[in-house]
């Protein structure tokens, strides 16, 4: 067995004392493993004695009945004890992954892999509808994963780059979805002035088959507007305080949607949301449908494939914009703001506009994703926009390694795809999911891809058009 | 007193500032003429750093004026003060640790107008790297991985990227080896001689600072108690007692 690595081994390099020391450290590490396990088990005992140890139920005549389940409690506490020992032992064995010096060949292999990985993933994504044409389920899953990739990239602007912990990102997703759903049904409102009272009338421009394409930017703009609206009250908040307010904001939006029955349909949601068209040509079996036009037999899979490419394009747009912005003064200002707000101010960066722009642009991509979600589902209700969604997207960003585009994509694939993969395990999949999260946080505490490539290099000039440089103002 | 006859670039008149109820600056007057190096020395808690911060609007001046080029800037928000080409290497350096050295330097130029064209910017970058060749080797490294001296060079370099008319240095020698301190002071002297850069510096290291500076101010408990040329102050018994011999004990 490999001797556990000892960080404090400062003894002389003589065989016998060194050996003694190694046994000593091993003893110490065994003791600390057991100590850790005991502490975890005690914690579990306190936590679960009420949650599992006592079972309460409403009796037949409404009275409280309860009984104890000490057997189960003991089993759970025992499992925690043993699990803790196993996890700690594995941890000792491998050590933190980041600190291990990899051999040169392995490192070179990794760097080649890193260079090939992104194009390979991209080509694979482009080919998914071709490869899995006959597997609706996988296509659907691909669309779902890409939606979360896009949401992750959008939130990454706010959390990863600007360092603003946003727990209410789903609010913008909801704003985008409802903007599209409601405007597609009513038509785009155009107010105009009239002579008679009430002086302003509103015309509704019916969008017909162009609804999705016309309203996609509108949804994004509206979400960005709400992003700025959220940004103003939280300008002076950081960290935990910011997290609480954004969490509340997400819930407020959901509750307003839930309760404003006249406008949003409340818990019944909005149905009959128009499906996307191939730039005006509907994907229907009829005479004027896309299939008839290009002369192939109609298949419902066409729409799925089309949706897949829409979300792929939207996600790549998000990624491209983020990468571009990171090389511009505005992106640098976001990152610098994450590092040190005071130093930023002293360099002439206007923190107000920098923060608001991060919220607005992050929210805009959330809005795009929301509009896509609405057109994909054809039906939306407040249930799709719970805190759970915000937490999931945030988990994707954190798991991916804050600020890393590739990491976020991998994390979205792992989280959404992995979750589906374990569908066969029924109720145990949550358990597997939680376990995997814990293990990942032990070995990759800074996310899957913790490396952050600098956006400015010496010797290679980044072209910054002079018209954009003023963006440093905000 | 050899106060410069030219109109001062920075003139502080009757400045008062406080943190809550604690008044830190009590009626401070300081002049900095164009092309001058002015050192502000004093013990811990005398209000030196607060004076620097008040020029940047944090904390706000309670009374008095901060005239830059004759305009009162005491009510401007911090980022607008910086855009007047008043650059600062703040106390504790405050570089951006997770951004590369190159990005840190670019941050200095991003918000300042005047060097917005790409060629101007790269010329400024070359100039800074010529002053601090050490930074050139570290361009792609994260700022946080630099040594203390290199971080100080980065902080000054970042400030220089904004083409400052007034460079303010808060304790540039803090926590640095004597050799590095001397290198940094040499660069400041060079910038002043060759480019006519105006410098206002706060230092604990009175000996070094007063040798470098044209003029100096001694600050005690939020008040300026002495001023004069660097050499004059170095000869003053009260300065020697308080900041030189005492400090060497």
TrEMBL record, chain B:
One Pfam match, given by its short name, reads: ABC_tran
**SMART domains, per the entry:** AAA
Q: Which UniProt keywords apply?
A: Amino-acid transport, ATP-binding, Nucleotide-binding, Transport
The record's annotation in Gene3D superfamilies points to: P-loop containing nucleotide triphosphate hydrolases
User: Which example biological process does GO assign this protein?
Assistant: L-amino acid transport
Q: Which CDD domains match?
A: ABC_TM1139_LivF_branched
Q: Which GO terms describe its molecular function?
A: ATP binding; ATP hydrolysis activity; branched-chain amino acid transmembrane transporter activity
Q: Per the database record, which ranges form the ABC transporter domain?
A: 10-246
Q: Which family does it belong to?
A: Belongs to the ABC transporter superfamily.
- Describe its function: Involved in beta-(1-->2)glucan export. Transmembrane domains (TMD) form a pore in the inner membrane and the ATP-binding domain (NBD) is responsible for energy generation.
Q: Output this protein's name.
A: ABC transporter ATP-binding protein
| Protein source organism | Nitrobacter winogradskyi
